[in-house]
Amino acid sequence: MNKLLILLLTVFFILSNVTESSVLKKRHGPFTACAGQYPNTVSITLSPNKLVYGQHATITLVGTSKVPIYQGARYEIAIDRDDNTSIMNASFDICASVGTNCPLPAGNNVISLSFPMPLVSPVAQDGKNYYYSMAFSIKNADQTYLSCVLGYVDFA
């Protein structure tokens, strides 16, 4: 009995250390749908693969919209560090960003959106490795959310 208990504790200890390893921690993507019901489903890719402070990043949306996107619609980006420090919380006019007249009709769409990253990083503790999460959503002109995804991102 004691040998079995020691074996189980050893396996538990090893597995708990392995899952805490930075190599195995969830990093860049994949982006998954937020909890809740949203009429437009999208998958996104982010470029560059590692975000850089002071440079532009591009999100490419591929999806199906059941609801048109009207003039005044916004896309929102929130990036947070795992210590709850906000890196970015911004909202942009989606119609102006796409360079076309709205409404964008319902149906299959591929849209690329570019946004500026903050110029500088928040202060970090020496030697600490941080993990970053990103939420991306589209809100129509009437303030209803059309789409939302969450994922992890890396910084260069």
TrEMBL record:
GO terms for molecular function: sterol binding. InterPro entries: Ig_E-set (IPR014756), ML_dom (IPR003172), NPC2-like (IPR039670). It comes from Funneliformis mosseae (Endomycorrhizal fungus). This is Phosphatidylglycerol/phosphatidylinositol transfer protein. PANTHER family: NIEMANN PICK TYPE C2 PROTEIN NPC2-RELATED, PHOSPHATIDYLGLYCEROL_PHOSPHATIDYLINOSITOL TRANSFER PROTEIN. Keywords: Lipid transport, Signal, Transport. Belongs to the NPC2 family. It holds the Pfam family E1_DerP2_DerF2. Transmembrane segments: none annotated. Residues 31-153 form the MD-2-related lipid-recognition domain. GO terms for biological process: sterol transport. Monomer. Residues 1-21 form the signal peptide. SMART domains: ML. SUPFAM superfamilies: E set domains (SSF81296). Catalyzes the intermembrane transfer of phosphatidylglycerol and phosphatidylinositol.
